[in-house]
Every structure is written in structure tokens, then in C-alpha cells.
Design goal:
The complex is a heterodimer of chains A (about 160) and B (about 400). In chain A, about 50% of the residues lie in helices and about 10% in strands. With about 160 residues, chain A is of the alpha+beta class. Chain B has about 400 residues and is of the alpha/beta class. Helix content of chain B is about 45%, strand content about 15%. The two termini of chain B are about 30 Å apart. The chains are: A alpha+beta (about 160), B alpha/beta (about 400).
Chain lengths: ~160, ~400
């Protein structure tokens, strides 16, 4: 049994094999593996006794359920109306400059992925973005550069 | 601007960590008494749809089943809304207490908070609050447990039946209604599903009685409401105001002196142009004069520097991405709308094409399966009809 198989067995045992535990299972695997590979989805299907198509169909419905490898720090910039009005494009450009990648790409060292997302619920403090689960609001170009510098220094 | 015309209310965020007392008080009353209290308060769902809360609890209480659920809908995804997060941060015990009282009334021992993935950073503290709350329940002999269920980035899961599907481990695709959640909710069991703010209001009502709640607001729209205010305003933030205010008073209070339009109720709500500020009120549909707009509390202000075309285009992009894709009117309709306004803007289609698109939104309103597809018409029609020239030139 390989490491992923063991991990999935453990996660499914923890949450339970019933279908209504599928989301928590998927979430935990994404969190630990940084994405859901086809292999992981097949293993989850086997372990929970449902079809791989069901797992794939469910997983790909949710925008946070990444099915391609992502960086250690996943940045999601809000692009919905208030953030758009308050300069999210400049924030995006600053991020592209600081990370030397384009929107949708991952840095070669696999540390950062840059994405956009819909309304984060920080409209009163726009523009805003998430880095993994952490919220960063009232962003400015300067703030973005110092934030990225700080994250680059993290392990 | 900044005239403080509208009275600021301080009920929801008022620190009253009295869960135990409120629970004790409710335990001394019968279920019927409590339901009647809630119905008498006139409290309506604060998520935006405005269904009477007392009636919802009553219907679910009457449903026969040994297994029932209480769900707090914290999938706050409507653009421009951010008040529920603040309630869960500042006064989570009010929400938990409301859930427990509901559980006792309808006969449910299990509650869930469906928290949107974007708010995951709240999870640790929320779980700690839940643990404290469980201890209070145990002390009072109340068999009730609450668990957080994490969403994962899907706006549509705020729609109640899509939320159930999501909790059941499926794609968040809305169901046909009826059956309604009071008969067939999570796992097919009778379920009460309430917005975070609605549950917080039930705490106030059970704590202070119905009068304190009813003295606020206007006929058909009782009580206060949290408003998430953003956009072109010098004072963005969360404000608790009385229902029934006119958009004009609102703009005089929160505008920047150059307000061109106010979007009431988020991307799925209505865009009110300056000429209609005076005649438009914020509240539930009733016998008020003029237009009355319901809202989950999203109020976005736009000044004259904003292009209404860009605004609509941003909303449509949002809907195109967030449509679950299950029914054709919504899946194809949202895409046709965005392509359509782009084509008119580029001059590839005549201005009269906008009328075809307006007709399409009518079709979507009549035939889409859920509120998402049906409500695209709200912003589309109110923007295109009031700012037609901006769509063309």
C-alpha cells in the first residue's frame, strides 16, 4: 500500500464511509496534498464504495477543490464588483510582478499559485485576497510587495 | 452626506452573553407559546427571501419525523454582503442559542452551521464557542449538538436545497420545490434552515420579548436589519438600521455626494438609479407606497465615475461562473446575456438587441430552476432599462 492509499484510508475511516462525508474527506485530502489527483479520487471512490465518476463530478463542482497541483501558498484575489472598483487589477499586476508569474500560474519552486476568485465578503475593505485561509484586505501595491516578501521568507 | 439621518440600532452586536438565561426562559415556555411569540414578532428571513421565521419553525415542528435538523446558513456569498461573518465573529452565542431553541421546538437534536470556505479562518474560534455552548446545553439537560460544515467555494450553495445537496456529499445543485425543507431537507428529513442574522434576531426576541423588536421598522417590515455597505461611500462597513427607510435617506447618510445608483441586494438584487431614490424603500413587499425592495443587506453605492456597463458585465461574469449549470435557462442564459451586451457595446449588434436580451431575462425568470437563474433578471433589467445609453455607447 502506498503512502496516499494509507492516508486516504485513514481520512475516510476518520470521517466515515457514508456519502454525506464526501466533502469533508475531499477537503482534508486537498488540504494535505495541495490538490486532488485522479489517483486520489479513484482511491477515495474505492474506499467509500462510490463510483469514481461521482467523486470527480462532486469535486469539480467546487471552486476551491483543486484538481491540478497548486503551490504551497495559494493566492486568490477577489475580482467581484467592489474589489474590481477599488483597483483589483493593480493588485493583480503587483502580484504578477512580485511573483514573476501570470494569473493562473504557479512559481517554478511550487511555492505560490496566483488565482482569482469571486466575492470574498470583504467589500468594505476592498481590495481583498486570500492566501490559503488567511484574509488580506485594504490592499495597496506597497502592501502586496511587502506581504509577498514576507511569505517568500517563510519555509 | 454623513448626516446621520437614519437611527443607528444596537441590538444584534450588543454584548449579552446570556445564552443560559435565554435557554432557561424558553424552557419554561411551551413550544406553542414560543412559536406564537416568534410569529407575533413579525420576524422574516434576513437572508433576503423574507419568509416568516415563526411559520417556518411551525411547519417543521408539525412535520412527523424522529429525525430533524436545524441548519444555520452561513454561506454568505452574495456580492456586497459581509454581515454574517461579523455576527459569527462577535456574537456567535446568539446564533447558537437560536439554533438550540429551534431544535427544541421542532424536535431536532442536531444542528449544523454551513460556513463558506472563504471564512475558514473563523473555524477555530467558532468551534471553541460551540464547545462552550455544548457545556451550557448539558447543564440544562438540553440534548443538542452543533457542528460546522465547511463549504468549498460555490455561491449557489447559499440556496437552501443546493446547500443540502452539498452537505450530502454531492454537487451543489438546487432541487425542485416542493417538497420544501420543512418536509424534506437535509438527508430528506424535515429541516429548518435560517440565515445567521435571522437566528441572532430570535435571541433578541426570546430575550427581550416581541415589543422591543416590533417597535422598530414599519408595517410588514418589522425590526432592524444589518446592512453591509460598500462601494463609493466614505463610511463603508456594517450598520444596523430600521427597515422601511427610503433609498434617498440612505444615500444622504452614506453617499459621497455624487451617488449615481445604489445596488440593493447584491448582484441578484436591483439597481436603483438616482431618479428613483425617493420613491424606493428598503423592506419586504407590503402595502407601502412606491417600490419596496427586499434585501439580504447588501447595499453598494456607485458614483458618477462608474460605468454601468462595467458593473453589469462584472455581475454577469459572476453569474456565468456561479451558475450550477443544471438547467438550460440559467446555464445558457447567463452566457448569452454577457455575450449579448458585449456584442452591442462593440457595435456588432444593434441597440434593439438589448430588447431581445431583456426578453431572455423574462424567460429565465419564468423557467430557471432556482433563485440564481431567476434573479439575474433583477439587476439586468434595472440596469439596462435605467442606463440604456451606457450599454450602447
Amino acid at each position: 500500500m502506498d503512502a496516499l492509499q494509507e492516508k486516504i484510508k485513514e481520512v475516510v475511516a476518520h470521517h466515515g464511509r457514508e456519502r454525506h462525508n464526501l466533502l469533508p474527506v475531499l477537503q482534508e485530502v486537498v488540504e494535505q496534498e495541495r490538490y486532488l489527483s485522479d489517483y486520489a479520487m479513484t482511491l477515495i471512490a474505492e474506499e467509500m464504495g462510490i463510483s469514481a465518476a461521482d467523486v470527480y463530478g462532486t469535486a469539480t463542482f467546487y471552486s476551491f477543490m483543486d484538481t491540478v497541483p497548486r503551490g504551497k501558498y495559494l493566492i486568490r484575489v477577489c475580482k467581484t464588483i467592489t474589489c474590481y472598483m477599488k483597483g483589483k487589477n493593480q493588485i493583480l499586476m503587483a502580484l504578477e510582478e512580485a511573483l514573476k508569474i501570470k494569473l493562473g500560474e504557479t512559481t517554478p519552486d511550487k511555492k505560490f499559485t496566483l488565482m482569482e476568485t469571486n466575492c470574498l465578503g470583504w467589500c468594505h475593505k476592498a481590495p481583498a485576497m486570500l492566501i490559503n485561509d488567511d484574509v488580506h484586505a485594504e490592499l495597496t501595491v506597497e502592501k502586496v510587495h511587502s506581504l509577498i516578501k514576507e511569505y517568500k521568507e517563510r519555509p | 452626506m454623513g448626516k446621520n439621518i437614519l437611527k443607528r440600532i444596537d441590538l444584534i452586536f450588543k454584548e449579552e452573553p446570556d445564552s443560559k438565561n435565554v435557554l432557561k426562559k424558553t424552557l419554561s415556555k411551551s413550544n406553542d407559546e414560543l412559536i406564537n411569540e416568534l410569529i407575533a414578532s413579525g420576524l422574516k428571513g434576513r437572508g433576503g427571501a423574507g419568509f416568516p421565521t415563526g411559520l417556518k419553525w411551525k411547519l417543521t415542528a408539525e412535520s412527523k419525523s424522529t429525525e430533524k435538523y436545524v441548519i444555520c446558513n452561513a454561506d454568505e456569498g452574495e456580492p456586497g454582503t459581509f454581515k454574517d461573518r461579523e455576527i459569527l465573529t462577535q456574537v456567535p452565542y446568539k446564533v447558537l442559542t437560536g439554533m438550540a431553541v429551534c431544535g427544541r421546538i421542532i424536535g431536532a437534536r442536531k444542528g449544523f452551521i454551513y460556513l463558506r470556505g472563504e471564512y475558514k479562518y473563523l473555524l477555530k474560534e467558532l468551534n471553541a464557542e460551540i464547545k462552550k455552548f455544548h457545556a451550557i446545553c448539558d447543564e440544562l439537560g438540553l440534548k443538542f449538538r452543533v457542528e460546522v460544515f465547511m463549504g468549498f467555494g460555490a455561491y449557489i450553495c447559499g440556496e437552501e436545497s443546493a446547500l443540502f445537496e452539498s452537505m450530502e456529499g454531492k454537487r451543489g445543485e438546487p432541487r425542485n420545490k416542493p417538497p420544501y425543507p420543512s418536509d424534506f431537507g437535509y438527508l430528506g428529513k424535515p429541516t429548518v434552515i435560517n440565515n445567521v442574522e435571522t437566528l441572532a434576531h430570535t435571541f433578541t426576541i426570546f430575550q427581550h420579548g416581541t415589543d422591543k423588536f416590533r417597535e422598530l421598522g414599519v408595517k410588514d417590515s418589522h425590526g432592524s436589519k444589518l446592512f453591509s455597505i460598500s462601494g463609493d461611500t466614505p463610511t463603508p462597513g456594517i450598520y444596523e438600521l430600521e427597515l422601511g427607510m427610503t433609498v434617498e435617506d440612505f444615500v444622504n447618510d452614506f453617499g459621497d455626494g455624487d451617488t449615481k445608483a445604489v445596488q440593493v441586494g447584491g448582484a441578484s438584487g436591483f439597481c436603483v438609479p438616482r431618479k428613483k431614490f425617493r420613491e424606493t424603500r428598503i423592506g419586504y413587499q407590503g402595502k407601502l407606497t412606491g417600490i419596496s425592495l427586499p434585501t439580504g443587506g447588501s447595499m453598494m453605492l456607485f458614483n458618477s465615475s462608474r460605468s454601468m456597463y462595467n458593473l453589469l458585465s462584472n455581475y454577469l461574469e459572476f453569474f456565468t461562473e456561479e451558475s450550477c449549470g443544471q438547467c438550460t435557462p440559467c446555464r445558457v442564459g447567463t452566457q448569452q446575456l454577457i455575450e449579448g451586451i458585449r456584442a452591442v457595446k462593440r457595435g456588432e449588434k444593434p441597440a434593439s438587441y438589448l430588447d431581445k436580451l431583456l426578453a431572455l431575462t423574462e424567460t429565465m425568470k419564468a423557467t430557471a430552476k432556482c433563485g440564481l437563474g431567476q434573479s439575474v433578471a433583477n439587476s439586468f433589467q434595472s440596469i439596462v432599462e435605467n442606463f440604456r445609453e451606457e450599454m450602447i455607447y
